Amino acid sequence: MKELIQLKLKEIEEKENIKILHCVESGSRAWGFASADSDYDVRFIYIRPKEFYLRLDKTRNVIEWQLDDTLDINGWDVSKALTLLHKSNPTLFEWNSSPIVYKTTDEWKKVSTVINDYFVAKSGLYHYLSTAKSNYCEYLKGETVRLKKYFYVLRPLLACKWILAEGTPPPMLFSELMDKYLDEAIKFDVLQLLELKTNNPEISEGKRFDRVNEYIERNIGNIEEKIKALPSTHDNGWDELNHLFFSLVD
Fold first, then answer.
1. Beta 40-47 vs 19-25: how paired, if at all?
2. What are phi and psi of 219, to 5 degrees?
3. Residues in CB range of 194: below 8 A, 6 or more apart
4. Region 173-185 average pLDDT
5. What angle do CA 195, 197, 131 make, to 5 degrees?
């Protein structure tokens, strides 16, 4: 599959007249709890020739290349990526730290060295907490629940715990977050869920895990209170990112 993905990347570069700077896995495979039939969530950052950025008739700054049962491939122009980095968009920190890298370049190393300078804890916390709350309310509050959705709640909650304790972007791997910040009282239940998730096709519905639900509700409330006290801005201006962008397109 890695070879197929790399062939797809070459095809995209040729047909779109771009250079891919960095390409990673971004979904459950990168988080470490993929099912046997999980698809591949392939994400990339690309750059176009310098002349493109001086044109009046610019095209979209995203490429949505493929979406089917096996491959989900899309990417962002580096101009979009750096603009979102200035806003501390959590997605970029995840792509930068993915444990599964399909392609990277020296140009991306320039970007990677400054990415964490733009991390704002409050922005990351709101992103992960919102993800946890929406998945919890939609999928996990009934007597019968969608079991795989526990990980779409637990991972962002543990990411919040990481940010509050470390002040840095959280790692992608669920196991790393779980080992450091998951309460021992529910580890057995979570390991049961993890075994179901990784050793079977996409698990569907099952009986609610009450201890896990209680843990989720308690931590959502605690994290909401802690977020209120944090500053919401950073001191970084645009100069560094502008210089970086100019060096990449030149």
1. antiparallel
2. -75, -35
3. 33, 151, 174
4. 97
5. 125
